[in-house]
Structures are given as structure tokens and as C-alpha cells.
Amino acid sequence: MDTVSHIAIGLGLAGLSQLDPLVAEHSITATAVFIGIMLGSQAPDVDTILKLKSNEAYVRNHRGFSHSIPMMLVWTVVITALLSWSMPASNWQHTFAWTGFAVVLHVFTDLFNTYGTQAVRPFSEEWISWNIISLFDPFIFTTHLVAVTLWGFNILSPILIFPVLYVVLIGYFVWRTLVHRRILRRMPQLDPEYSDGERYTIIPTVAWSNWNVVKKQLDGAFRVGHLRRSGLIWNETARCDSHPAVEASKSQSAVKTFLYFTRYGCASVQPTGYGYVVRWVDVRYRHRKQYPFVALVMMNSNFEPLDTYIGWISEKQMKHQYGLE
């Protein structure tokens, strides 16, 4: 989820914590729990600070170890310890429980997005992305906004509001999961170009009935399109070049990081006056006829690297900074 959604969910959990009798009756514990929930709902994304170091460090690590099993415990313990030290009269057990719930829920909801997390580290470094909920989901955000508003203006009791909210949201997540599975099973029937052995990935958007679609073809190319109520429409085919420059680019740290993060990488080679530019794109993130998430390697005619880049960049910025067409 995006930062705004995690904040909204944090406020929702703060409301839900009012069901805990000790939180409801003990103001100091209530304060500690509120702060713990809000910090816990954001803590796994502290790795965003890696942007200050480099794009490569951010891409390789964001939603990685910070979302792992050990770190979920670390975030909970550290936040609880700080709150217990600053508010010794608060009940640390309840603060620990609610803070931990917020941290775990943050990681769990991130699994439903396309970006995914490495939530099962250290047992595996696999990126888990279930492609069920959009990075920003209007329904999740709006329902939390309504619930928090009702609570904040004392229109209804939090004991009534938040259990209903989370029962509705559990049902919503289950429904979206079932829809995703049903559509994925139907993709071969929806696609008149289907060949046995081709694999589909469907990616959620903010509209419930709209999905972006990536198909891995048997020849290694990717078909990229979208599914609407009117049916499946293919926008283009991303064909991946086979060239010595592509193989040479794989030795570069930026490309290693890119391929560590995604299984949807596709490389193209562009000759230049100084040699070649190899452009790796992640075909999942097609936006306005562009693929903005890239890894670039500029190299001479002997395939020796001159410069590299990894991150999000538009075609216009790429052309301006690197002279690419």
C-alpha cells in the first residue's frame, strides 16, 4: 500500500484498539497504543530513506529485509521499548500487542500489491506479490476515512464502527482474491491468441473491473494489454533482444539489482555513436505507452560500461539525460 493508505489503516487500528478494555479505560496506555500503532503502521517503510544513498540501494532493499519476519519483531520491540521508557505508567504488554498487530498488518497488506515484499526472509528472498489490490485502493482508503470521521466527531462509538469496518474489509479482500483467481483461470478463454504453455499475470488498477495484463509468450516476448468489461485488448508486444551487449550488461550491479527485483525484465539494445545502450524495462509497469521502471547500461563498442542508471524515469527524461530515442 502507499503511505497515505498505511496512515489511514493506522488510524483505523487505533479506533479498533478501543475494543481493548485496558486501552479504553487507561488514558496513558491508550496514548502509548495510539503512538505505537501509528509508528508500527509506517515502520517497515523506513527503508525509503535509502533513496538518499542511491536509486540502486532503494530498489534492491525497499520492502525487502525491512518487511521480513525478524524485522517485524524488531520494529515491535523497539517501538514498545521506547514508548515504555517514555511512558512508564503505560501497560507494555498491550502496547506490544497492538504495535505488533500494526506492523504485521502493514506487511500483510503489501503482499496484495504488484510491488510485493520479501516477507518470508530469511527463509527465502523471493519477492511475493499477489497482484490483488492496487497500490492505492479507493475503497480501503474511503472506508477508513468515513470510519475515522464518525469516530472523530463522536457520531458513533468506536466499539461499533471499527469491528464493522474490518469485517467489511476482510470480506473485500476475500472477494478481490476470488475475482483475481477467477479471471486468471479464464484468461486462456478470453485471449483469442492463446497458445498452450503461455503464462498470464493480471495486475489490479483503481477500478475494480479494469486489470492490466502481461502474457509471457513461448518465444520469450511479452504481450502487454488490459482487460475491461468490453474484453481483452493487447496494446503491444515487448520483444527482448538477444545481443552480446545484453549479456555484458548482466554483469553490472544496476542490472543485477533490477533482475533481483523482477521476473518481468525485457532488454533492448540501441546502437550509439560511442557504442551501445542496453535498456532493461519491467513490462508490468507500462504507463502512458512507456515503461518508466528501467535499468540502463551505457557501454562502448567493446561492451565496457561507461555509465549506469536504475529507477523510475520517463522517456522525455531519458532522452534529455542520456540522448536516447
Give the DSSP E fraction (strand runs of 2 or more residues).
15-25%
Helix/strand/pairing category? alpha+beta
Mean pLDDT: 95
Number of helices: 11
* First-last Cα distance: 33 Å
Count of extended strands: 8
Describe the strand arrangement of the main beta sheet, using strand numbers: 1-2-3-4
How much helical structure, as a percent, in the residues? 40-55%
- Quick one: overall form? globular
* Secondary-structure element string: HHHHHHHHEEEEHHEEEEH
Q: Flag low-confidence runs.
A: none
The whole-angstrom Rg is 23 Å
Largest sheet: 4 strands, antiparallel
Question: Could you give the topology of this structure?
Answer:
Elements: H1 3-16, H2 21-25, H3 27-40, H4 55-61, H5 69-86, H6 92-110, H7 138-152, H8 158-190, E1 199-204, E2 211-216, E3 222-228, E4 231-238, H9 244-249, H10 253-261, E5 265-271, E6 275-282, E7 293-300, E8 305-312, H11 315-322
Antiparallel strand pairs: 1-2, 2-3, 3-4, 5-6, 6-7, 7-8
Helix pairs in contact: 1-3, 1-7, 1-8, 3-5, 3-6, 5-6, 7-8
